[in-house]
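$ fold --in a.seq
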Amino acid sequence: MSSIRTKPEWRRGHAGEVKVARFLRDRGHFVVMVKDGAIAPAMVGSTDTIVLPDLLVSKDGVTKFCEVKSQTPSFTRRHGRYEVAINAGAMRQYRRCESVTGLLVYLAFVIDDDIRFTSLSAESEHRGDYHWFAVGELSTL
């Protein structure tokens, strides 16, 4: 049985997490890589469990979470634009994380050599099992 760490998807995702962590540190943030290996960390309460985003980031007295997604954008003819997506179930977990912790959760999309950011409250379109974000509307910091 092979380890998940040998799978190309995991390696790409982990490389994206390291890249975003380095990017943020280089801009004065302190970063905790929340995930330890291949298992997504979680907060456990008496009645439920909440999956945590990949990074905990602090600067100037402000702390927030950041979930990293390494993706190739999809062009949608319907909207005539490139889009990236996050699974709707994950989006629910991260919104619950915001609610319980009081810390904002940001999404970082690693697209080739570029990193784009958005908040969970940014406009997205829920289609099927995913929330879709227009690449052109994501921030580069």
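$ fold --in b.seq
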Amino acid sequence: MPKSPTPKETSDTIARSFFGVEADLVSRSIAARQMLVSALASAIITPLLFLLRFGEVGPLGWGTTVFFVTYCIVAAIGLYFGPRTQYHTPVPLRNDWLDKIGAFWLMACVFGPFFGWVIASIMPITADSWRVVYGVRVFLAAGLPLITALPLTRYARGKSMLIVLPLLIVITLLAMWTAVDSGRDLVAGPIERRTANRQTELYLKYTDQNLGSAR
């Protein structure tokens, strides 16, 4: 049975294939600096493009900006610390079911908020459906990133804790932040307010969502 590559061997292969750099400290440091410059450029150019094209940045524009900036920063961290084995976790890879859950962490942080936003955008939000729609959005954007992050905390040992824990916490919280208002409305529920024509309607104040006339 062929031996599975170690995490460092996998990291070196990705760095060589996608970034064109070897495992030496100099080339990795240069590539890491380039990715940080790219992160700064993405933070400026991406919202500017949305503003020029649509007249506003909007949630999708800011979400796209955060995605590109986070990708560049994570890539820079991986490139810089890849050959510096003293910052690698001393805990051996276990390849158990918890590792299989943790392997989807970054995907959950990226696609969970995106699909949660899509569902909340295309599904009709009414007095009968809002709890289901918001519940699905909170689960995808906040629940999945948190669930998949927890198994990875057991590898935050030694010097790797200085890198692993901040990454897990910050990126997971960024994903969860996209569903904060939906979660607050789930907890608080709709309120009644008077309209201009003196009718009473149900209203979700944190997401600024009208649910129609109160029954």
